[in-house]
Write a structure and sequence with these properties.
Layout (H helix, E strand, L loop, with lengths): L9 E7 L6 E2 L4 E6 L4 E5 L4 E6 L6 E3 L5 E4 L6 H6 L8 H14 L16 E3 L9 E7 L6 E2 L4 E6 L4 E5 L4 E6 L6 E3 L3 E6 L6 H8 L7 H4 L4 H18 L22 H16 L2 E9 L1 H13 L6 H15 L5 E3 L4 E3 L5 E3 L1 E3 L2 E3 L2 E2 L7 H16 L5 H4 L4 E5 L18 E15 L2 E15 L5 H16 L7
Helix pairs in contact: 8-9, 8-11
Length: 481
């Protein structure tokens, strides 16, 4: 298993494009490997025959674990497998048929368990993000009995971070659906079965997936399509309830009443990650008031002719990016036995959506113009609300900004977004009386609060960063120097 990204420690096989016994040429697509950042194509760098596959679709391997063996037809690979701690494999000519016969060998009720990842017709719930443990079926785009081709859109899966499209990596007929719209499915659980009608014992596969339990006919055979279609309206009705839609009828006065809304995947991860952050990282907070008069005037002039309108948040982001270059301790991460001081500036921008919060990342923000930043943030916000962000959009931040000013919030404190050492909470701009040159005048004040991980940042360091940020926002021309 190669290291396909700088932070990758393990990979998940999203799909094999070759099977044991196939002839492979240098440059052929072997497999798609899901890393911590994206799903990437793995090409062969040698010619030969695929003699062994280390793990099936959905399986996980550590970097440098045995992924596959390519060699001469009939070559003895038992020595390699024994050295890796695996059992000797059967001859390649015999191994491929075994995989195709696996569905027929699935045990009936009370039989032994079967590794579903080795059953060719089975599609399991893939791990679509680094923190995903289960997925919710947002929508099926195929129904039982439909013909499916490789690359067809099967379903939309709601993960802890986004709703992502799941494409088929095989041809056949959709024989079974393991969960309806709105249902939760654990990673590596049976999602659906695609195969040749009449040649796949769906009952046995479903029974194996349930640990040997009996699979009912209407839940497993192609003839179950009408039943599945009848269940769809119920699942659809349950899904708005899952989103927390208000009850249509209010309770009579004096009567106890409430709704219990299932916790979404996103909310679970938010609770876990921020709970760990708050109770693991010793937070401290530094607040500063910034005179925004000149920033308001500068933004007005910029937007008179700018193709992309600049927001105050864009100005704050740009100012932070430049200030972080001058205060690298703020742009750092706690790694347990060491502190990582980042030389690049990747700023996460907290975006509120219906189910919670996403933090897409503006990469190398210190090198981008206000127009580039504004365009990128607007695109992120639109895609976040449409649940179209991809893992690479929200990974790799070195600092985070959370802005509640547009909601009329004067000031607040934010919880650090791991692995960052700091997060900036930005309040709204308020008109208040200020003293300038000994005279009380109306002024526009914005309060910002920096939350710091005290394991990495000390109070004086945080205060110095805010002083630099304040100087840029109070004299925006300084950002151009």
């Amino acid at each position: 298993m190669p290291r396909l990204s700088d932070t990758m420690t393990e990979g998940v096989i999203a799909a094999w494009h070759k099977k044991v016994g196939d002839t492979v040429k240098k440059g052929d697509l072997l497999a798609e490997v899901e890393t911590d950042k994206a799903t990437m194509e793995l090409e062969s760098y040698k010619d030969g025959t695929l003699l062994h596959i280390g793990v099936q679709n959905g399986g996980k391997l550590q970097v440098n674990d045995l992924l596959a063996i390519i060699g001469a037809p009939g070559e003895d690979i038992s020595g390699i497998l024994n050295k890796q701690g695996g059992a000797p494999a059967a001859a390649p000519a015999q191994e491929a048929p075994k995989q195709e016969q696996a569905p027929q060998a699935a045990p009936a009720a009370g039989g032994s368990s079967v590794d579903l990842s080795k059953v060719e017709e089975v599609i399991l719930m893939p791990r679509l993000s680094d923190t995903m443990t289960e997925g919710v079926i947002a929508e099926w785009h195929k129904k039982i009995g439909d013909d499916v081709k490789k690359g067809d859109l099967l379903a939309e899966i709601e993960t802890d971070k986004a709703t992502m499209e799941l494409e088929s990596y095989k041809n056949g007929k959709l024989l079974y659906i393991g969960a309806q719209k709105g249902d939760k499915v654990p990673v590596n659980a049976l999602l659906c079965i695609i195969g040749e009608e009449g040649k796949v014992d769906v009952n046995k596969i479903v029974a194996a997936a349930k640990g040997g339990g009996t699979a009912s006919a209407d839940a497993s055979q192609p003839a179950a399509a009408p039943a599945a279609q009848q269940a769809a309206p119920v699942a659809q009705a349950a899904a708005p309830a899952a989103k927390g839609a208000p009850a249509a009828v209010s309770a009579p006065a004096g009567q106890v009443s409430f709704d219990e809304v299932p916790v979404s995947q996103m909310r679970k991860v938010i609770a876990k990650r921020l709970g760990e952050s708050l109770f693991t990282a010793p937070h401290f907070y530094v607040t500063m008031a910034i005179d925004m008069d000149n920033a308001i005037a500068a933004r007005t002039k910029i937007n008179e002719k700018a193709a992309v309108k600049i927001s105050f948040n864009d100005l704050v982001l740009k100012a932070c990016a430049i200030a972080l270059k001058q205060h690298p301790a703020i742009n750092s991460s706690w790694l347990g036995d060491k502190i990582r001081v980042n030389h690049h500036v990747n700023i996460g921008v907290a975006v509120a959506i219906e189910d919670g919060l996403l933090v897409p990342v503006v990469r190398f923000a210190d090198t981008k113009s206000l127009t580039q930043i504004g365009t990128e943030v607007k695109d992120f916000a639109a895609r976040a609300k449409a649940k179209k962000l991809q893992p690479q959009d929200w990974e790799g931040s070195t600092f985070t900004i959370s802005n509640l000013g547009m909601f009329g919030v004067d000031e607040f404190t934010a919880i650090i977004n791991p692995p960052d050492a700091c997060i900036l909470a930005v309040g709204g701009i308020s008109q208040v009386p200020v003293v300038k040159d000994g005279v009380v005048k109306p002024g526009n004040i914005m309060k910002v609060t920096l939350s710091c991980d005290h394991r990495v940042v000390d109070g004086a360091t945080g205060a110095a960063f805010l002083q630099t940020l304040k100087s840029f926002l109070e004299e925006p021309l300084r950002m151009l120097v």
